[in-house]
Amino acid sequence: MSQVVAVFGAGSGLGIALGRRFGREGFRVALIARRADRLEGLVQELAAEGIEAAAFPADLSDPANARPVVEAVRARFGRIDVVSYQPLPGGTAFVPATELDSTRLGALVDLFLLTPVEIANAVLPEMTTRGSGAFIVTGGFTAADPKPYISGLGPAMAGIRNFVHSLNGEVAGAGVYAGVVTLAGLIAGSEAYDAMTPDELATVTGVGQVVIDPDELAETYWGLYTERDRVEYRFPEHHGSDAGSGARSGSFA
């Protein structure tokens, strides 16, 4: 039975690029996101390239939906070998810390921390039993490098970043990899790219205009999955000492 990559938060940027990259290696592709019509379009794109894919509409902002969609993927494909979690709805924006309250932060924590933790909890038993698998999350630079006036996403993503670092140390011995991709840039073709211009992002990040090729980023994910030589990939390089040597793509946060 061929392997399966489950792409949570699949869209027209990184999501389709990941499906294409893993699909070239013989993976079947599960695409999970809120909008069924958009997912079906992505499935057809992959099918045209000879890649078997299926759509699983789900609202990832509600952690209660995590386990049901994992079971739906298993019912269709029989297994999950790699999880990629990178939802970032168009219009998601930074919030000054002085304007952040528990209601506003709670919604971000649900999407960026509690839902992926639930997914990890649902897929890890089969991965550790098999002795193989991977769980990779995409986050933004404010999770690792907090700055004034650009909070909100950062506290929520910092939680999942912390979780993944701990998780990898616990499951690596069982043959399972956990990693996080921390980015300061806009993925070309993504909803986030449409919601914020490169100039606007450059103003808040201080790293200049960074537009990242989704196919190059998907190659980075493939490298993390196969090489397992680091827990975290950071881009751009000067945003962390653990960064990779080249620009292989990103989302903002």
Explain the overall architecture.
The chain has a 7-stranded parallel β-sheet, with helices on both faces. A two-stranded parallel sheet has the order 7-8. It has 8 helices and 9 strands. The longest helix is centred in the middle third of the chain and has 29 residues, at 102-130. It is α/β, with parallel strands linked by helices.
Short description:
The chain is of the alpha/beta class and 253 residues long. 43% of the residues lie in helices and 17% in strands. The protein has a 7-stranded parallel β-sheet, sandwiched between helices.
The count of DSSP E runs of length 2 or more, i.e. the number of strands, is 9
Element-by-element helix/strand order? EHEHEHEHEHEEHHEHE
Kindly state the mean pLDDT as a whole number?
87
* Percent of residues in beta strands: 15-25%
- How many helices? 8
Radius of gyration over all CA atoms, rounded = 17 Å
Distance between the termini: 37 Å
The oligomeric state of the chains shown is: single chain
Kindly name the structural category. alpha/beta
Uncertain spans, ≥5 residues at pLDDT below 50? 238-253
Strand order of the biggest β-sheet: 3-2-1-4-5-6-9
Give the fraction of residues assigned to helices.
40-55%
- Tell me the major beta sheet: 7 strands, parallel
Q: Topology of this structure?
A:
Layout lengths: L3 E5 L5 H10 L4 E6 L2 H13 L4 E5 L8 H12 L4 E4 L16 H29 L2 E8 L12 H19 L4 E8 L2 E2 L3 H5 L2 H8 L5 E2 L1 H14 L4 E4 L18
Parallel strand pairs: 1-2, 1-4, 2-3, 4-5, 5-6, 6-9, 7-8
Helix pairs in contact: 1-8, 4-5
